[in-house]
Every structure is written in structure tokens, then in C-alpha cells.
Design a protein that fits this description.
Number of helices of chain A: 10
Oligomer: heterodimer
Number of domains of chain B: 1
Shape of chain B: elongated
Order of helices and strands of chain A: HHHHHHHHEEHH
Largest sheet of chain B: 5 strands, antiparallel
Number of strands of chain B: 9
Helix content of chain B: 25-40%
Shape of chain A: globular
Strand order of the largest sheet of chain B: 1-2-3-4-5
Order of helices and strands of chain B: HHEHEEEEHEEEEHH
Radius of gyration of chain A: 19 Å
Strand content of chain B: 15-25%
Helix content of chain A: 55-70%
Structural class of chain B: alpha+beta
Largest sheet of chain A: 2 strands, antiparallel
């Protein structure tokens, strides 16, 4: 990044205008997997924010010492270490969520957003902007996860965070939960709807 | 100092790996007791689920101690094996050894009305990975009071449906002994009936392999209990009750 970017932009841009999921289309695979319910989506979002922010800071601190030949390996070691720590902490303090997320926490290591941010931002910037960049991109990812999880749980199970929100009278009147929302394809369709809405508001994101 | 030299690169990566490794080892060690507690509490709530008890998350251990009044390990002949803790038996490995040498845990659950249910663990293979569960049997040694199944990675919406009550509730009231013969419950395609007269439940459409896995798991893991269950039915062996 040659041009000087303001810290606030570093933090806020990834939320919408440069969102890692709906604009850069990165990290789609985990959106599919963990959003059938809202709670795992939130836990996954927080985990990615934590891993991304700390990995960005650590890589940024090390950026002048890392030998170029092995920079990707160094990034992977740092990310993998952080992910395993998050996984262990979840197993100790949020066992149910960690059971639901199972392998997907481990798969944060291969989340394209992480490698993308480390390589594109942290390797060239100071620790504080890198931290903001990590938090911003993590939040951008988490927001999409929560939106998708919200709709999938509401329409697929009639609950939110496990609490029944669709009243029983609806079911008595013949309302049925949409079982398709629970299945992975609907995650992509919901993401596509978000992209559609976002691009119709931000005209400059539209591709000709 | 030349940061691109081989020596620098080598030393750099060695130091990095040692630092990260130490951090991981420290985290794993310091969190281990809590994780083991969680795993044990999870197992307890699964055992209770078979007896149709769903405790509050915070009260799993208390409820387990309240309802599970005793637990013991038996062998295929129905005799108690001394010096073995039922909760510590690894059903996954036991399900693979020959029935004659198998350790068979039994959890005795005493409900509020004083009736006793015998909870037996089962373990088998689904389509993608292991499946396991607990089956609660009435004091008559034949009627199934409740069942709980879980899986590691069956297909959501298909094989994974075995963990839903819609599937496991079918087992309630089925009999392990039919006309004096021991026949574990079979899982069959909807509308079909087993030819040998065994009691059966409907499998899951689209989850055929997982359904068959449940049937095979019940067959493999409940058959060794045959003598024990028969002795329950006949009311003898009162020290095991």
C-alpha cells in the first residue's frame, strides 16, 4: 500500500465498501458451514476477529525481521498457533459452541481472509494500523456471518439464539419452517441477496 | 546482518517454532482440567438424555449424581467385574474387542417415581464417522424406556437426523426380547418389516447407511448384555439390581 490511508478508513472500509466476504468474496466456505444457527455464527465471528487482529499485530511487529523466502511459512505458523489457542479456549469455556463449530475453528487457518490481510497489509504497515485492519476485516466477516445466521435460523428453525421467536399460533395456522434454510446452499443464496442489496446501494461497486 | 542468508532463515524459523510451541503447550496444559470437566459433563448429559432427563447446563453433574444411583461394569456372562469404573470405560475401544473379553458398563438410573432404568452405552460407525448413544432399558430387561444417539459428522438433514428426538423417540416401548428370543431393535426402511420378527423402527430416508449403522451398532453393543438383561427379566441376580 503506497498511498497513506487514514486509520479510521482502515477500520471502517472493510465493514461495507471493501467487505472481505461480499466484495472480495473471500472466506465463503465457512459462511456455508457455520451459519445454520446464529450462536455458532457469532462465536465464529468473534474467533476470526481475535485471530485476525492478533495475527496482524504479531506479523506487523515481526515484519522487518522475517526473511522473505519463508514469510508465508512464518505467517502460517503464527496463524496456526493462534487458531489452536482459540480452539483450546473455546473447548474450555464454550464447549457447546466448540462442539458445533468442530473442525471449522481449525479451518480458520486456511481462511483466505487471514492470509490476504497478513500478506497485503500487516507485512507493510505498523502494528496499530494493522490491528485496526484486522479488527475491521474480522468485523466485516462477522457481520455477514451474523446476518446470514439470523435469516437462516429465523426461517429455518423459527428460533433465534435457541429461543422460539415464531409464535406457536403461526404453526397452528399452518406455517412451516423452511427446511431448505438449514441446508448449505441457502447460505450462498442469502450471501448473494446481501451482495445484491449492497451493490444496488453502492453503485460504484457494480461491475459493468 | 544479512537477513536473506540461509543461517538467518534457519535460526529464525527454529526460534519461532520453539516460541509458538511453548505457548501452545502452556495453553493446552493450563486449560486441560476445564476441558476434561466439560467432556465429562457432556457425557453425563448424554447418559441422562437416554433416560429422558434433560438437565440444565449448570446442573448436569448434580443431576447425574442424583439420578444415577449406581453404576458398574459386567462381562458377557452377566457377572460384575470388580475394580472397573463404568464411567471410565472407553466404549469406543470396547465395541471392537471380542464379546467374551468386553467390559460392559451399566448405569442404574432411579427416577423420581422409584422405578429403575438400566442405561447401556452403544458405539458404532455411521457413514462418515463414529456414531454413539445410550439406551435405557426398563427393569423388565426388555422394554426400551428411551434412547439417545449422537454422531460426529453425519450429513446434516440426512444421517444427522439420528440425533433428533423424531428418530430416537421411536425406540420407546420397543422390546429387546420377542417371544423369549433376544433380538435387538432393527432399523428398517419405512414400510418394511424384519423377517425374523424382531421389533423395529423406521430408518431415515436418504440416511440409509447411517440408519443401518444404528441397527448394526445396537446389534453389536446390546447383544453382549443378553445374559444380564435376561437375568433382570427373571428377577434373579438381585445384587446387580
Amino acid at each position: 500500500m503506497a498511498e497513506k490511508v487514514k486509520n479510521s478508513e482502515v477500520l471502517l472500509n472493510p465493514l461495507s465498501r471493501n467487505n472481505p466476504v461480499v466484495v472480495q468474496i473471500l472466506g465463503i466456505c465457512s459462511v456455508l458451514a457455520v451459519t445454520a444457527k446464529l450462536e455458532p455464527a457469532i462465536v465464529m465471528g468473534i474467533s476470526v476477529i481475535a485471530v485476525l487482529a492478533f495475527a496482524n499485530v504479531i506479523i506487523s511487529l515481526l515484519r522487518n525481521t522475517i526473511p522473505t523466502n519463508i514469510r508465508i511459512i512464518v505467517q502460517l505458523v503464527v496463524v496456526a498457533g493462534l487458531v489452536v489457542i482459540v480452539d483450546q479456549v473455546l473447548k474450555a469455556y464454550a464447549y457447546d459452541a466448540s462442539k458445533q463449530l468442530s473442525v471449522f475453528i481449525g479451518l480458520i487457518i486456511t481462511n483466505c481472509i487471514l492470509m490476504g490481510r497478513l500478506e497485503a497489509f500487516a507485512m507493510a504497515n505498523k502494528p496499530w494500523p494493522s490491528f485496526l485492519d484486522g479488527v475491521g476485516n474480522g468485523l466485516g466477516y462477522a457481520i455477514i456471518l451474523v446476518i446470514v445466521g439470523f435469516f437462516r435460523e429465523l426461517l429455518g428453525s423459527g428460533t433465534l439464539l435457541g429461543y422460539q421467536v415464531v409464535p406457536q399460533s403461526f404453526y397452528d395456522a399452518g406455517y412451516v419452517n423452511n427446511g431448505l434454510m438449514i441446508l448449505p446452499p441457502m447460505a450462498l443464496i442469502v450471501v448473494a441477496c446481501i451482495i445484491w442489496v449492497q451493490r444496488s446501494y453502492n453503485k460504484d461497486l457494480q461491475e459493468p | 546482518m544479512n537477513k536473506q542468508s540461509n543461517t538467518y532463515t534457519l535460526i529464525y524459523i527454529i526460534v519461532l517454532v520453539i516460541v509458538v510451541g511453548t505457548a501452545l503447550a502452556w495453553t493446552a496444559l493450563s486449560l486441560k482440567p476445564r476441558q476434561q470437566e466439560n467432556v465429562a459433563a457432556d457425557k453425563m448429559s448424554q447418559i441422562l438424555a437416554a433416560a429422558r432427563i434433560t438437565p440444565d447446563k449448570t446442573e448436569v453433574v448434580a443431576d447425574f449424581n442424583k439420578y444415577i444411583t449406581s453404576s458398574f461394569v459386567i462381562d458377557e456372562k452377566g457377572d460384575k467385574v470388580e475394580g472397573e469404573e463404568a464411567f471410565g470405560v472407553d466404549v469406543a475401544t470396547e465395541s471392537k474387542v471380542a464379546t467374551s473379553r468386553r467390559l460392559l458398563p451399566v448405569y442404574v438410573c432411579t427416577l423420581a417415581d422409584g422405578s429403575r432404568k438400566y442405561i447401556l452405552p452403544v458405539y458404532g460407525a455411521g457413514l462418515w464417522g463414529p456414531i454413539w448413544g445410550y439406551v435405557a432399558v426398563d427393569g423388565d430387561g426388555s422394554t426400551i424406556y428411551g434412547a439417545y444417539f449422537a454422531h460426529q459428522g453425519e450429513t446434516p438433514g440426512l444421517g444427522a437426523e439420528i440425533e433428533k428426538p423424531a428418530f430416537s423417540d421411536q425406540f420407546e416401548g420397543r422390546h429387546l426380547f420377542k417371544e423369549g428370543k433376544f433380538q435387538p431393535i432393527e432399523v428398517v426402511k419405512k414400510g418394511m418389516v424384519p423377517t425374523d420378527g424382531a421389533d423395529y423402527v423406521d430408518g431415515i430416508s436418504g440416511g440409509t447407511i447411517t440408519s443401518k449403522g444404528v441397527g448394526a451398532m445396537l446389534d453389536n453393543c446390546l447383544t453382549p448384555y443378553k445374559k444380564f438383561l435376561r437375568s433382570l427379566a427373571e428377577g434373579e441376580n438381585s445384587d446387580l439390581k
